[in-house]
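Record minuted for everyone:
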Amino acid sequence: MGLAFDEMRGHDGTAVRPAYGELDRWLKEVPPDVLDYRRREAELIFRRIGITFAVYGEADATERLIPFDVIPRIMSGSEWRQLEKGLTQRVNALNLFIKDVYGGREILRAGVVPEDMIFRNPAFRPEMNGQSVPHDIYVHIAGIDIIRVDADTFYVLEDNARTPSGVSYMLENREIMMRLFPELFSRHRIAPVENYPDELLASLKSVAPLSTSKEPNVVLLTPGVYNSAYYEHSFLADKLGVELVEGRDLFVKDEVVYMRTTQGPQRVDVIYRRVDDDFIDPLVFRPDSILGVPGLMSAYAAGNVTLANAVGTGIADDKAIYSFMPDIVKFYLGEEPLLKNVPTWRCREPEHLAYVLDHLSELVVKEVHGSGGYGMLIGPSASKVAIEQFRAKLKNAPANFIAQPTLALSTSPTCVEAGVAPRHVDLRPFVLTGRKGVRIVPGGLTRVALKEGSLVVNSSQGGGTKDTWVLDG
């Protein structure tokens, strides 16, 4: 792993990069105790408004605050525009890929992606075969995880095409920064993110079924208060001005979805769902699900309701399919990918597996269907025992794993107990696709690994978040 690129000082650490010039001057003027005081103030505000998440599987699965770092991560307008073009291209390719996989399957016939990687994939939903969706849009909201390795190179780490979360933190982080650091804001021209709810609502309304004759009725479907992202669901419903509903609030009659209200049944046209495929309709998927709506898939098949994101989008954010994304972009768009993929070894292929087994101590090994930073081996920091345990797992079920080099995620100045120090960061921009094309609010959620030297930024693994500033101009 090479030396990490520092977003403020570049590779050599000598000169401050232009986007960070004002922040650097400000940090030199601000007494350390002021930064610490504001950091504690931010934590108080987060506690008061109740931004928490739960970590499943822990004995005390209590609600936790995600640590918030008060020093923003800054990108120039030109850096953002480069990233925006690459994200737009990638999400367009993802939508075409999902449409094809459930339709003509040209990419399988052309031998670009192996058939068994689709048909044996637990995220593949045969119920979607031949099913058209309104306006051919499957991924209405994508969270694309980006890392940076030098001044000009961004890599995609992961495509989240099912029910990506974290946008509430992007919005709340900005609000808190504006409240606590008005003097720092006044020194910069920062592109706004607070219009995200308006953009999201416009996108969702634009994909209402073609049969919708009036103003589309949009609802947000949540699994309920025990879900780890429930805070975000209620926050977004409130910002969008739409009803937050659970499965029991909806019913299907004559292949049309209705919401129960005190004024009687009200037709629903678009469901922004934060419930996974498995639980969305007990008549089609898991019969024991009490989170979904019986008959929802029949209304969907009839074209009477739009689900955002579509059912079956998980086929596109699988880590093994990820390794084919450069080929997928070329196949559908006839273009070279603007955003790089991290080089990936597919352990299902014998020669890839042999290489990975020989280099376990150097690589990051991930479960194909894993998420949240769980089920992975970070070779350079793993014990010999952990490496040998993973070796056994790989030999036992190689198709369940991919491996990647340990990339040096870029670092950004972060407020730590000892003052200000670089910590590794990634970025999740939120990409909206509606009938009028792709819209991306400038910025996204920057996640930061708060432990010195750590590359794991996931909140469930002790990571924090910070505001992301894209400079206008």
Q: What stands out?
A: The longest strand covers residues 419-428.
